[in-house]
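User: Reviewer 2 asked us to show a designed sequence for the structure in our supplementary figure. I'm pasting the structure tokens here. Could you produce the per-position amino acids so we can include them in the response letter?
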């Protein structure tokens, strides 16, 4: 979670440096999405909303497109959607782009998509029940929803140490898993898996370490940048083929950490639903 993204999202399109945290997050997310697509034989997917809380907007489904899956992206900001479309073109990747004023009526055909999903975006929805009702209608096989870990130390520190109040930007009730599960159950969708994701060996502070420590009265001088910029876009353009391998060097903690540790350390949690038969 990082509230400043509401003010700075445009900057990432000209300077896509996302740092280690978001770079790791994207690779782990790719790993999970690829597993879901293989398991459920996904041929097309819908990502809605595309705007979440990570760096460059609208690129979370790029790996799926590279894998040959037909991708459809939906956003409520026309300017951002155009910038997303341009950055996909820069990667020589294609997708379908749809603008909506809100997310209450997605206006897609019944069972149009094998997979529908989003990442850290549900709290931008005004009415979760209406949105999920619309989402389940246009989804045939599986729905994958990722929400910030509200019990995480990083989430709590950002929420209570931020100068801006979270309720001024998002609907926090929408990311409470039991609320999502309850609605999906009424819509005849079964919770298949609920688990933590994005659990590297560092906390989810959502800001530079200098800015984080400053909140506690600890000042350290920022050094000139000693490492090159980190952006997964270089990986998608085959400029850095070892990018994923380097990020997965930190995956060991995610594999071995027990749930009682992930409860307060993982950055996100995911819910995987399938239609109730």
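Assistant: Here is a per-position design you can include in the supplement:
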């Amino acid at each position: 979670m990082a509230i400043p993204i509401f003010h700075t999202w445009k900057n990432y399109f000209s300077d896509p440096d996302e740092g280690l945290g978001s770079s790791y997050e994207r690779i782990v997310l790719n790993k999970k999405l690829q597993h879901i697509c293989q398991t459920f034989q996904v041929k097309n997917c819908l990502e809605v909303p595309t705007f979440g809380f990570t760096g460059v907007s609208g690129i979370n489904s790029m790996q799926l497109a590279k894998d040959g899956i037909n991708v459809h992206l939906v956003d409520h900001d026309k300017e951002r959607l155009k910038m997303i479309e341009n950055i996909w073109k820069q990667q020589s990747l294609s997708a379908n782009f749809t603008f909506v004023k809100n997310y209450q009526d997605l206006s897609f055909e019944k069972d149009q998509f094998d997979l529908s999903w989003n990442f850290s975006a549900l709290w931008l929805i005004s009415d979760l029940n209406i949105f999920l009702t619309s989402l389940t209608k246009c989804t045939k096989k599986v729905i994958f929803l990722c929400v910030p870990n509200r019990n995480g130390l990083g989430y709590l520190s950002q929420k209570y140490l931020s100068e801006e109040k979270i309720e001024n930007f998002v609907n926090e009730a929408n990311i409470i898993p039991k609320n999502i599960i309850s609605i999906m159950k009424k819509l005849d969708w079964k919770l298949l898996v609920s688990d933590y994701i994005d659990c590297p060996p560092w906390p989810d502070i959502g800001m530079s370490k200098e800015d984080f420590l400053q909140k506690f009265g600890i000042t350290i001088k920022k050094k000139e940048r000693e490492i090159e910029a980190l952006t997964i876009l270089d990986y998608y353009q085959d400029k850095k083929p070892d990018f994923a391998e380097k990020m997965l060097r930190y995956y060991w903690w995610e594999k071995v950490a027990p749930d009682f540790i992930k409860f307060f350390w993982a950055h996100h949690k995911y819910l995987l639903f399938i239609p109730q038969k």
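For the response letter, you might also mention the following. Strands lie at 44-47, 70-75, 96-99, 113-119, 139-148, 189-197, 268-275. Residues 5-275 form a domain with the Rossmann fold fold (CATH 3.40.50.150).
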